[in-house]
Every structure is written in C-alpha cells, then in structure tokens.
Amino acid sequence: MKQFLLAVILIVVPVGHSVAAEAKSVQATDQEHADGRAIFQTQCAHCHGAKGQGTEENYPDPLVGDASIGELAGLIADTMPEEDPDQCVGEDAVAVARYIHDAFYSEAAQLRNRPPRLALQRLTGDQLRQSLSNIYGHIGQIRRDTWKERQTQQGLEARYLTGKGWKDENLKIKRVDPQVNFDFGIEGPKKADGSDAGIDGTNFHAHWNGGIRIEETGRYEIIVRSTTSFQCFFGHDRNKLIDNHVQSEGRDEFRRTLNLTAGRIYPIKIDLIQRKRKGDTPPSSISLSWIRPGGVEEVIPARYLAPGWAPAVLRLSTQMPPDDRTYGFQRGISVDPSWDEAVTSAVLEFADQVSEELWADYRRRHKKDKRSREELLRNFLGELISIAHRASPDQAGAERIVNVAFEANEIEADRIRHAVLLALKSPRFLYPTIDQDRSRSWRAAVKISLAMHDAIPGDEWLITAIERNEYETKDQRRALANHLVDDARTRAKVREMFHHWLNISSSDDLRKDEERFAGFDASVVADLRGSLDAFLESVVWSPESDYRKLMSADWSMTTPALADFYGDAWRSTDERLEAPNDGEADIANGFGRFQPTVRDPTVHVGVLTHPLVMAKFAHHQNTSPIHRGVFLIRHVMGRTLRPPNSAFAPLSPDLHPDLTTRQRVELQTSPASCQICHIKINPLGFALENFDAVGRFRQSENGKPIDATGGYTTRSDEQVSFDSARQLGDYVAESRDAQSAFVSRVFQYFVKQPIAAYGPEKLDELTEQFRQSGCNIRKLLVEIAVICSDE
Q1: Under CATH, what is the fold of the domain 143-307?
Q2: Under a CB-based contact definition with an 8 Å cutoff, are residues 299 and 305 in contact?
Q3: Pick from 757, 132, 742: nearest CA to 454
Q4: How far apart are CA 585 and CA 179, in angstroms?
Q5: Are strands 229-234 and 240-244 parallel, antiparallel or unpaired?
Q6: How many C-beta atoms lie closer than 10 Å to residue 509's C-beta?
Q7: Phi-psi sector, 230: left (phi>0), alpha (psi -120 to 50), beta
Q8: Where exactly are the structural domains of the chain?
Q9: Locate the Cytochrome c domain: which residues (predicted)?
Q10: Could you count the other beta carbons within 10 Å of the beta carbon of residue 407?
Q11: What distance in Å separates the CA atoms of residue 480 and residue 534, rounded to the nearest whole number?
C-alpha cells in the first residue's frame, strides 16, 4: 500500500514547512547527489527499479511527476522504505529526494532521458473539414473576415421593389437591415424612419443578400417563418435551402438542420414575393432565426450577419470520429476503418459539390476560353489537385491522377469524383508534413496555416506568395503569421482553444435543481455562453490582448436577463442594453447585445468566477470544490494528477444537514489515502466557495459564513495563501506556473505537438518572451506559428 502511495504522492503532495525548507535551503553538491543515489539503490531500487522505472513484482509504474524536492523529501521521511520508514529521514530523505528529482523524476529529467520527438500525424477531423473548405474556397474564392470588418459590417443588404418585376425603376428602398424580422402587414415595407416608401403592400418584392458568420463548428438549425411566398438560398447561389415559391397552405414555418464550419461566412439569399390576390391579400411577414450549438432559438443577431456578396462555402455533413486526446490535445495518429470510412464520405460529399457547383462556376468564368470542355476540366482538376498536394500541378502529379480518372470513366461527373478521391485519399493530402520535396516557402506556409487556421493554404493571395518563395526567412514567416492572426478562422480556433482549456462544451448538461435555482433555464445558459465568449473576445482581441485580464478582470459581459438573475454586479454600464433588442444596437459594437458589466472586484474575477465555469464545475444542487480544484490544478496551474483509485459520490447534504459544502468535503477527504491528492485540490477549490452551483455570489451557506481561504504550493516549494477568489485570481494572473501552463496549452492546441519536441528549453524561452510582451496572447500565437515553421 505504501508503495502505491509513494507513486501517487510523488506527483501531487505538498509537505510540512520544515522538511521543505531543508530541501530547498542549499543546492545539491556532488557528494549529496552520490549519497542520495547510494541510499536509493540500497533502500528503494528493489521496489522501484534502479532508474525509477518500476519493477513488475513490486511497483510497475515509473516514478515521474512534477512535485518539488521538498514534497518528495517529506513523503520519503514519512513513509519510506515501507518496512522501516525511520531508516530514511532528515538529511538522508532530502538527499534521496534531490537524487530522484534530478535523475529521473522531474519534468527536466524526463525530457533529458527521453526527449519527445515530432510525431508523424495525419489531418485531424477539424483539419480535414477546414482544409476541404479551403480547397473549395480557393476554386470559388475565399472571403476574408477581419476583426474590424466584424465590428463594422453587420446585417444583410436589403432591396425593396414595388410591383411585379425586378426593374430598377421599381426599386424604392436600398439599405442594410440589422436583422430579418419584419411584420409588413398589408401596408408593406417602410423606410427606416417609418415613413412611406411608395411600396404597394399587396404587390412587392424584398431581397436580402449577404452571409452568416459561423464562429463555432457544429449543428445549426436555420428557421424561416413567413406568411408570404419566398425562396432561401444557402451556401451557394444554386443551393436552394428552402423553396416556398409556391406557398403551402397554412404552413408558415420552415426548419433546416446543417453542420457548419467555424470561421466561415456562408452566403445566404432570401427572395420574398408578395403577390396581389383576387380577393383579400393576406398580410406579409418574415423572420430569419437559428438555434446555435447549445443555444436557444433567436432571430439571427446583426453581429452574425455580413452584408453584400459572399462566395460559396462547402457544406459538409459528415461527422468525423473523435481524434486522440491522450496528451490533452487533438492528434491525428489513429488510422482505423471508422476514420477511413468518414474520410471517404467527406471526400465524396466534397466531390459532389465540386462537380455540381464549382465546375459549373469555372466553366462560366472561362466561357470565352477557346479550349475544349475536356481540356478545361483537366485544367480545373489540375488546379484543385495542386492545392490539395501543395505544389505546382506538375510536381503534384496532377496529370497522372487526371489521366487515371479519365481512362476509367466516360461520364464527366464520375471523372471528377474519381480524380477527387484519388487526390484527397492520398497520403500527400492527409499527411501534410510529408513535404520535404516541396519548397521552403510551401513547407513553412503549410505549418503556419495549419497552426493558425487548422487548414492547408487556400487563399489565392497566399498561394501566389508561396509560389514566389516569399516565406523563406524567419521575418517573412513572422509577417505571414501576423497577417493570418487577424482572420475569422484564427478567431474561431482561439475560441475553441479556450473552450477546451476551460473544459466547457455546447453539449454540457448544466441543468440545476429547479426549486433551489428557479429561473436558471436554457435561455440564461445561452446568455452565459454568449457572455463568456464575448468576454474572451473582448480581452484577446483588444490592443493589449493581456492574459492577466483573463484571470483577474473585475468586469464581465452581460445582458438584461443575466442582470435580472445575478443581481447588481451584472448590471450593464451601457444604458442601451435596457432597450429592446431590435438589432440596431448590434451595429454599434462587435458584441451585439452583450455589454460590459459594472466593475466589481469581488464578484468578477476574470474567467475563474464566470457563472458558466462555476456551473460546469458544480453538482445539481451544490458546489463542487473538488471539481473546481481539479480544474485549477490541472488546467490553470498545469500540474499533474493521477486519476483516483475509485469514483466516490459526494456525501449527501441530507446526511449532514448542519455542515457547509466545504465541511462535507473536508470530512469526506480527511482519510490519509484521500489527502494524497486532495491536499492540493481542496485548497484551490475552496477559494471559489463564494459562488454557488450556478455561479451566484453568496456570503453564507446553511446560515454559516463562507470560508474561502485556500492555498497553493508552487513547483519551487513556495507556499501561497489566499482568502478569496479575488486573491486567487490576482495570484494566478502573475504566477509563472500558471503562465507557463497557459503557454504550453496554447502551443499544444495550435501545433498539436509537444513544445519540448522543438527543444528542451523552448517552453521556458517562450514563457519568458510571453511575460516580456505583457502576456500578449496574439503575439504568443504569432511566435508559436514561427516556432513550428522552423526547420
């Protein structure tokens, strides 16, 4: 039993001050190192192996972790060796701890003994989806969406005409509508100020044109309600999503479910026709709504709409199987039948849209070309293959692939499908780093594009620059990364990274006890999701882009519904928030109806006390200091924890009605076997006890004042204490442990490789660079892209 406790506590347990102080009081000398090694070989190696690798007979797990020397020394003094713990105490325990830590236990020792290497990886599911979208977009053009454009270009372009035809002389109104949500009645459309526009309300046309911004990949439901004849085109100008041109009697609601890709603007066009009837013409109305992943139905806000023309975008319904997350980030390492089937399905979907849409568009653009249709198709496919295989058509072997497809098929659509399958099921596409025979510019641009956008390059300007060999130097690669960081595809990946870091998902079940938390419904949860995303964006995309504000900001983003539920600290500083949500407010800022709250340093502590995070790490009726503590120690501080031996249900409040949640947790985790881990977990989780299971601030529980005191032991044995979430947030914001953990997580998420594979000192160097930049997140993203493009 003690051998098991040793391996677990070596990873997680702080120790008493005296042993820890002794352990860090002096640097190890050669003699101390030799003494520690000798004691370990005599008293420990028979159970744990000569190099801590474990032994099959006694303890098979290796001795590795991130505890400090002081923590190791304390454990050894208390418990080792198992048959006689008093044999190794005091200076001997410290000597053994120093030897273990330096020889094989610490992270530095692990990197030295077994340095990680760059793993050969295929495209992940997200990378496949984004790469196919980039290839599709290269043929049909990609609309770049910057942060400035998202803040200033909102709504849909609208044209209103009176009468039957589409003649210019019938045009009465041309404007940008923030939303599509109109009840025209029998009077017809009016000007923005409500005055008459000269439109016959019984006989007119209305046309909306633009795009829908998608910020999260997932399942969306598009909903159009109208009492009038209309058609809705989506994704491509020939893809008719809803056809109500011949109006269905008694039907005025139309729903379509789509899987959409983050970072894209999907074109949408709605044509509404009010026809004069022989009898009474019914009133006209129309609204465009949606349900986002994890959301509730709402009229699509202006911030998600982009006016004017938008190029076609791939619509991919195939669901890719989950990728490996063993090391805390997605990796494309598994190849099995389910993955192969999903790739085939996705490629066939892509091929059908290429055949039915892009090939027709290509012919239209080349209608004056003198070449034969077959020659045009060969050129079209060669261009597609060259993008997929990241080289010129000749180097990509496009002619060989096209010849095979042409020889095997007579029908044009079959030739396209065959060529696309050969090109996109090829390792040349699926393994984008198999490119040593490609130019330096191609190799660098592919790595930077994958890091920033999760996609191989597809933008025309980028392909042109690559072919000119413009990314051979580090300065050129840094300039490219700076250019790509301000892009909707990067913003989407940043949002997904934060969701992953905070361990939140649109599929989370956040329902709570309805009696105890009346009013905490789906609409409040949807507002909380929007609030958190708006807060993250407001920090990351501000000029400072300061990580420390994420941890300690004394404000958040709110709506009237959140202010009603959470109280005065969630009131807005902007009076416009209290006005009806008619879409006009969306144009004034990039966050729509979400506005900054009043400042309150007690209630608002960055993301740490955001109600969505607090509700995620809580039970149905009560808080969970354990879940919150595990989140903080692993995700925020970057420390390691082994999973518990068994899953234990929390003590029921009914069994101890007089105890607070903290007291019940302390009671349940008081045994020595539990304290192995909970001595680190609980003090962090307790600091958030002022926030209940839905994230509302409270000062008492069961008639007793909240005790939010807590603490943390750093990797260097420094003891830190705090008595509130505010002190916790202020500490985390400046903690090198936390900053280094954040840098490592961001690197791994964006590059999908361990940072140590780029050099054992790379994490320390990048963390110091991050600190020197003022903890600027955008600059961190750029440097990560530059590092991964080095050779």
Answers
A1: Jelly Rolls (2.60.120)
A2: no
A3: 132
A4: 11
A5: antiparallel
A6: 9
A7: beta
A8: 2-113, 125-137+321-434, 143-307, 502-734
A9: 31-104
A10: 10
A11: 27
pLDDT of residue 637: 96
Beta-strand pair 253-260/719-722 = unpaired
Cα–Cα distances in angstroms (integers) from residue 146 to residues 132, 215, 492, 586, 785, in the given order: 21, 13, 12, 17, 19
At which residue do the structure tokens 């791994």 appear? 748
- Max Cα-Cα span within the chain: 105
Sign of CA dihedral 520, 526, 529, 530: negative
| Residue 47 half-sphere exposure toward CB, CA atoms < 13 A | 16
Q: What is the DSSP letter of 298?
A: E
Q: In whole angstroms, give the CA distance from residue 582 to residue 549.
A: 31
Distance (Å) of CA 186 to CA 201, 684, 723: 5, 62, 64
Q: Calculate the alpha carbon distances from 719 to 327, 666, 715 in Å.
A: 29, 20, 10
Question: How big is the chain by its Cα radius of gyration, in Å?
Answer: 30
432: cis peptide before it, omega within 30°?
Answer: no
The whole-angstrom separation of Cα 681 and Cα 687 is 11
Is the torsion defined by CA of 160, 222, 148, 456 positive or negative? negative
Query: Between vectors from CA 152 to CA 146 and to CA 154, what angle results, nearest 5°?
Result: 95
Note the helical H segments in 595-724: 611-616, 625-631, 661-668, 672-686
| pLDDT(78) > 80 | no
- Token pair listed for 101: 């830590």
List residues bridging with 335 in a β-sheet. none
Stretch 410-422: mean pLDDT, rounded? 98
And the tokens for 527?
């507002």
**DSSP percent split of the chain into helix, strand, coil, nearest 5:** 45, 15, 40
* 171-177/264-274 β-pairing: unpaired
Pairing of strands 264-274, 204-214: antiparallel
Q: How many residues does the chain have?
A: 791
Q: What is the dihedral of CA 295, 296, 299, 303, to 10 degrees?
A: -20
**Is the confidence at residue 23, as pLDDT, over 60?**
no
Q: Is the dihedral of CA 35, 37, 38, 44 positive or negative?
A: positive
- Supply the pTM of this predicted model: 0.89
d(CA 657, CA 660): 8
Q: Please state which of the four CATH numbers 2.60.40, 3.40.30, 1.10.760, 1.10.3470 is assigned to the domain occupying 2-113.
A: 1.10.760
Report the candidate in 61, 79, 82, 68 with the shortest Cα–Cα distance to residue 12.
Answer: 68
State both tokens at 139: 């043929």
Task: Judge whether 708 and 686 are in contact, CB under 8 Å.
Answer: yes
Q: What digits encode the pLDDT tens for the residues 137-192?
A: 998 877 777 777 877 889 999 999 999 877 888 999 999 999 999 999 999 999 98
Spatial CA neighbour of 533 closest among 585, 486, 574, 492: 492
Give the span between the Cα atoms of 775 and 121, in whole angstroms: 30
Question: Tokens standing for 97?
Answer: 């701890």
Structure tokens at 49: 């192996």
Q: What is the Cα–Cα distance from 362 to 303, expressed in whole angstroms?
A: 32
CA dist 286 → 57, 130, 252, 767 (Å): 74, 33, 9, 53
Is pLDDT above 80 for 240?
yes
Q: Is 508 exposed, middle or buried (0-12, 13-18, 19+ CB in 10 A)?
A: middle
d(CA 336, CA 461) in angstroms, rounded, equals: 36
Tokens of 611: 């109600």
Amino acid at 561: A
From the list 392, 285, 313, 7, the residue with the least C-alpha distance to 142 is: 313
**Closest alpha carbon to 353 in 431, 280, 416:** 416
Q: How does pLDDT run across 269-303, given as a tens digit for each residue?
A: 999 999 888 778 889 999 999 999 999 999 999 99
Residues 449, 450, 454, 458, CA torsion sign: positive
**Start-to-end CA span in the chain (Å):** 48
Q: How many CB atoms lie within 10 A of CB 144?
A: 14
